[in-house]
Amino acid sequence: MQEERRRAGQTIVWLFIGVFLLAACARTVIGQEIYLRSNQAALDQPASVDTRPVRFVVEPGMSARAIGQQLEREGLIRDAALFEAFVRVNGLDGRLSAGAFTLAPSMTLREIVAILTDPQAAALTVTIPEGWRIEQSAEYLSRPDLLGPEEGALYRQQALSGDLSGLDPSRYPFLQERPAGASLEGYLFPDTYLIPSYAPSAHDVLSRQLDAFAQRVPPLYQAARAEGSTQLSLHEVLTLASIVEREAVIPEERPAIAGVYLNRLAIGMKLDADPTVQYALGYQPSTGQWWKTPIFLEEYSGVDSPYNTYLYTGLPPGPIAAPGLSSIRAVLYPERHDYLYFVALPDGSGRHVFAMTYEEHLENVRRYLGR
């Protein structure tokens, strides 16, 4: 009997504890709802009129209360308790994202919450243009507001050496077609990417570029091979496409320019492609450029590099830049013609005049360039 009374007493105690905890929780939620209703106007009042951008970092696992307190400390909001109440009452606490955000004291509390609960706002936008070489991409990524110097240097080192450490090589079987020791030049697809803003890494960018390449380029290449449109290897296609990317200015001329180079390759004629010499020359400290312009004919013979297509017949050892899909497609599906030469018009339009014979080419040079 005493044992039964003891157990009944314990049950009553636990029931009281449970009721007390539920009441406490209810009071907290109800209290936040009341506080929120009584401060509706404050939701649309910024902390100040200061529009300066402020980098605000939300660490993984931070609670709504901790985030609100941090926002208040940094002068981005006036009332941390109101922030917490607004987030919790509206069920947004589970949607707060870790990452680095750009905020301003002139934003309202509503606007700040909208940004902190937007996954894309917690991402960095990285844009690698078509025609850039690896070193240019690495310089860009080394900016403090992107990867920073350390991760930017790692990107450069891995891309130039072809080092796949930290990546999954099995996802990129096309890389096995590269010559031994080849870099990732030409395989890092140029595009705009979203990467995590919290502790972004070189691998975040490399993996996204290789994933984009895997999705877009091999299927296009395999289709062209199946149709008999090209006999080149993927590495050769990328190499020629990178030259077309640097040479062509007008998009619709890419297939014609690709056709000229393919015609030259077919008869064992040197490509004489200016961008390959520019690539071999490398960085120019006097101008801060990677692509020296203009290049004079007398300079060509002094650049002894396998990439110099004025000295060596055939394709260079590998791509000289990141070709876009249009240039890759131009090489896979070139314009069929008998042209072997082209010269750029001096009017700044980027257009070229094509010729089948050297005599015709010289005439075009005299006519359009006056020499």
Q: Which sheet architecture does the biggest sheet show?
A: 2 strands, antiparallel
Order of strands across the widest beta sheet? 1-2
pLDDT < 50 stretches: 13-27
The class by helix and strand makeup works out as: mainly alpha
Binned strand content: 5-15%
How many DSSP H or I helices?
13
Helix content: 40-55%
Function: Functions as a peptidoglycan terminase that cleaves nascent peptidoglycan strands endolytically to terminate their elongation.
Organism: Caldilinea aerophila
Membrane topology: Single-pass membrane protein
GO molecular function, one term: lytic endotransglycosylase activity
Your description of this structure?
The chain has helices spanning 2-37, 64-73, 80-89, 109-116, 134-141, 149-161, 202-227, 234-247, 254-266, 274-281, 297-300, 325-332, 358-369; strands at 54-58, 99-103, 123-127, 192-196, 341-344, 352-355. It has three domains: 42-117, Endolytic murein transglycosylase (Dna Ligase, domain 1, 2-Layer Sandwich); 124-218, no CATH class; 231-369, no CATH class. Helix content is 46%, strand content 8%. Helix 1 packs across helix 3 (80-89), helix 7 (202-227) runs parallel beside helix 12 and helix 8 crosses helix 9 (254-266). Its EC number is 4.2.2.29. It is a single-pass membrane protein.
